[in-house]
Write a structure and sequence with these properties.
The chain has one domain: P-loop containing nucleotide triphosphate hydrolases (Rossmann fold, 3-Layer(aba) Sandwich), CATH 3.40.50.300. The protein has eight helices and eight strands. The strands form two sheets. The chain has a five-stranded parallel sheet, sandwiched between helices. It has a three-stranded antiparallel sheet with strand order 6-5-7. It is globular and about 40 Å long. The structure holds adenosine-5'-diphosphate (2 copies). The site of one adenosine-5'-diphosphate has 19 residues, from helix 1, strand 6 and helix 8.
C-alpha cells in the first residue's frame, strides 16, 4: 500500500496538487474536506454532525474524522494506496493513521509539506472556485477556468465555498496552524517529511513533488 500525505495550510495547494498526483501515480485522492462537504450536501447523519464545525472553520472531532478516513481507505480503489489531502491535521490523527496502517503491514511513505506564507494563503482562498462534482480547483485571477463558472475537467458548475469568506478563513488558519506544526513535527524525526516551496507556479510545485516522490537517478537529473 502506497500512502502519500499532503500537508499544508488551507489554500497551500493540496487539493490542486493531489488531483494532479493522483492522475500521475494512478492512486485515488482522498480528501476529508470533500467527504465532509458531500455528507453535508446529502444531509446524512455524518453531514448533520459536522456542518456546524465546518461553518465555524473548526476541526471536526478526531473520532469522527479518523473513522470516516479509515472506512474510505478500506474501499477497493484504495487497495494499492492513496494520496491523503487534508488528513492528518493533528498529532492524534497522525498516530491513529500509523496504528491502522501498521495493522495492514503498511506505513506512510512520505509526508509532503507544501509551504506557503500566510498573506499569500488569504489571496488564494478569497479567489478560489471549486467544482461541485469532484473538487477541481481554480483561481479567478491566477488559474481561471477556460469558460467562467464551468469546470474544465468535468463541465460541472463552479462554486465558492462558504468557509472561504475572509472571517472564516482567518478562523481556519488560526485553528489549523497549530495542528499543522504538530503533524510536521511528528513526521520529521521519522525521516519521511519533505518540504516543498508552494509559492511557485502549479506546474513547478508538481515537478518538485514528483522529484521528492520518485527521485531521478543522479545520471538523469
Ligand atoms: P488547499 O487544498 O491546500 O486548500 P487548493 O488546491 O484548493 O488549496 O488551492 C487554493 C487556491 O490557490 C485555489 O484557488 C488554487 O487555484 C490556487 N492555487 C493552487 N496552487 C497555486 C499556485 N502554485 N500558485 C498560485 N495559486 C495556486
Ligand atoms: P482547506 O481547503 O482549508 O484545506 P478542507 O476542504 O480540507 O479545507 O477542509 C474543510 C473543513 O473540513 C475544515 O475546516 C474542517 O472543518 C473539516 N476537516 C477537513 N479535514 C479535517 C480533518 N482531518 N480533521 C478535522 N476536520 C477536518
Amino acid at each position: 500500500m502506497r500512502i502519500l500525505v499532503l500537508l499544508g495550510a488551507p489554500g497551500a495547494g493540496k487539493g490542486t496538487q493531489a488531483h494532479i498526483l493522483a492522475r500521475h501515480l494512478g492512486l485515488p485522492r482522498i480528501a476529508t474536506g470533500d467527504l465532509f462537504r458531500a455528507a453535508v450536501r446529502a444531509g446524512t447523519p455524518l453531514g448533520l454532525e459536522v456542518k456546524e464545525f465546518m461553518e465555524r472553520g473548526e476541526f471536526v472531532p478526531d473520532e469522527t474524522t479518523v473513522r470516516m478516513l479509515l472506512e474510505r481507505l478500506d474501499a477497493p480503489d484504495a487497495s494499492h494506496g492513496a494520496i491523503l489531502d487534508g488528513f492528518p491535521r493533528n498529532r492524534a490523527q497522525a498516530s491513529a493513521l500509523d496504528e491502522s496502517l501498521a495493522k495492514r503491514g503498511s506505513r506512510v511513505e512520505l509526508a509532503l509539506y507544501i509551504a506557503v506564507p500566510e498573506d499569500e494563503l488569504l489571496a488564494r482562498l478569497s479567489g478560489r472556485w471549486v467544482c461541485q462534482a469532484h473538487g477541481h480547483t481554480y483561481h479567478e485571477v491566477a488559474y481561471p477556468p477556460r469558460v467562467p463558472g464551468v469546470c474544465d475537467v468535468d463541465g460541472s458548475p463552479l462554486v465558492q465555498r462558504d468557509d472561504d469568506r475572509p472571517e472564516v478563513v482567518r478562523a481556519r488558519l488560526e485553528n489549523q496552524l497549530g495542528g499543522l506544526r504538530e503533524v510536521v513535527d511528528y513526521y520529521r524525526p521519522l525521516g519521511i517529511l519533505r518540504v516543498i516551496d508552494g509559492r511557485r507556479p502549479i506546474a513547478a510545485v508538481t515537478a518538485d513533488l514528483l522529484d521528492a516522490i520518485e527521485p531521478k537517478p543522479y545520471w538523469r537529473a
